[in-house]
Write a structure and sequence with these properties.
Radius of gyration: 22 Å
Number of strands: 8
Structural class: mainly alpha
Strand order of the largest sheet: 1-8-7
Largest sheet: 3 strands, antiparallel
Order of helices and strands: EHEHEEEEHHHHHHHHHHHEEHHH
Distance between the termini: 33 Å
């Protein structure tokens, strides 16, 4: 969060349009899309996921006006293959050796003269994802990269980077939904949905990056939003991003001071200012004072959230308490999954209001900093209580997103 003294605040949701080059320069940092090439060792979970992803596209291609062409094994290159036997990719007849160092901790897709080529790091990236997000992290990586394969096959080379990447995120979500419906690993397990969201969150751009950067992929909130839109609405909806770009919430740091403090208010200031901003937001939604209904969190909890995540983890926890107070005041149920999802939606209404308008607190005006929306998702996705209920994090984050984008009417309060 950023606190300004006596300055009017407005941060609008950015809608980006314009031209960008999807085809990567082989000398530049590769976009994150996977590679396999030549003979590939069995047991690589990235390679193992490809058959199911390609099967998805073979049954989905008609919905997006495509006759899908499978990527040949000779155009799949894992980093270990490049280390041992190399690989070649030509652009306009100019042959280049694929450099294993350029795919370190990365994955990418490029349209070589020899055919669409997918490259990924099976030395560092894949083992790390597999360890932290079993099954889901690697599968979502490859499903995202196959989103780029689809873009190449459709000839979509004039998208901005942010739209191309979030469309690929959306398409990865569409695959996850299909795999779940088909009872395909890892999405036959509810826990995989949570891992899919958390791993997507961790692939966000660096804090403070601009959405207009040539290699922008999006902040965590937007990448998760795109993934869940694909899961909920399917591949055909993802393709609508070309004509109707999604809202982009990624913003750069406002100044050197905000960058230096990472967009975080000092702890005591965060508790005081965000506490007032949250209270004002929820009181405005009620016909009576909510103060008597609020179960205030203890200071140790807020301090831990601040230290582990950031200042908007404090705001999110406070908003959850006030959202529950609002539910109680209007006669909503408080226990169970439905009420929990509604609370997440109501927290989202506060986030959306803060993002668009900021909040006046006395002589101060609080505005969102680049990482604040991601911190809200992290508050949910790092909760041990939530993670002990597989699949609940995925649903809660989806509900949080709905409240943030669509407002209080979408939360069906006392409907």
């Amino acid at each position: 969060m950023r606190s300004l003294r006596g300055v009017a605040a407005f941060v609008g949701i950015l809608i980006l349009s314009g031209c960008g080059e999807l085809v990567p320069d082989p000398e530049a940092n590769a976009p994150d899309t996977p590679i396999i090439g030549g003979p590939v060792e069995t047991g690589d979970p990235a390679f193992d996921s490809i058959a199911d992803i390609e099967r998805f596209w073979e049954v989905t291609d008609d919905s997006i006006g495509l006759e899908y062409e499978p990527v040949g094994n000779d155009r799949l290159f894992a980093r270990s293959v490049l280390d041992s036997s190399g690989g070649v990719c030509s652009w306009n007849g100019d042959a280049e050796d694929l450099d294993p160092d350029e795919v370190a901790e990365n994955a990418y897709v490029t349209d070589c003269d020899e055919g669409i080529t997918v490259v990924w790091d099976d030395v560092e990236l894949v083992p790390d994802l597999e360890k932290r997000f079993p099954g889901a992290g690697v599968t979502m990586l490859m499903a995202h990269e196959w989103g780029h394969v689809i873009q190449f096959q459709l000839g979509l080379v004039d998208q901005t980077a942010i739209i191309a990447e979030q469309q690929a995120d959306c398409l990865s979500g569409a695959y996850a939904a299909w795999a779940r419906a088909q009872d395909i690993e890892p999405f036959d397990d509810d826990q995989a949905l949570d891992w899919a969201i958390i791993s997507t969150l961790e692939t966000r751009d660096a804090i403070g990056s601009s959405a207009e950067d040539d290699d922008a992929h999006g902040n965590g909130f937007d990448r998760v939003r795109a993934t869940q839109e694909g899961f909920d609405r399917g591949a055909a909806f993802c393709m609508s991003y070309d004509e109707t770009p999604p809202p982009v919430t990624q913003i750069p740091f406002a100044d050197d001071q905000e960058e230096a403090d990472g967009g975080n208010l000092p702890y005591d200031e965060a508790v005081e200012l965000l506490g007032t901003a949250v209270a004002d937001h929820f009181e405005a939604l009620a016909d009576e004072s909510l103060e008597a209904f609020v179960d205030e969190p203890d200071d140790d909890l807020l301090q831990d959230l601040y230290d582990e995540i950031g200042d908007n983890a404090v705001g999110t926890e406070l908003a959850l308490r006030w959202a529950e107070a609002l539910q109680e005041a209007v006669g909503e149920e408080l226990n169970g999954e439905g009420p929990a999802l509604q609370r997440a939606c109501l927290v989202g209404t506060w986030l959306g209001d803060m993002f668009e308008n900021g909040a006046e607190v006395g002589d101060d005006v609080i505005t969102m900093s680049p990482f604040d929306l991601d911190e809200a998702i992290q508050t949910f996705s790092t909760s041990n209580d939530l993670l002990s209920n597989p699949g609940l994090v995925f649903e809660l984050v989806a509900s949080l997103r709905v409240g943030t984008i669509d407002g209080v009417d979408a939360c069906a309060l006392n409907a």
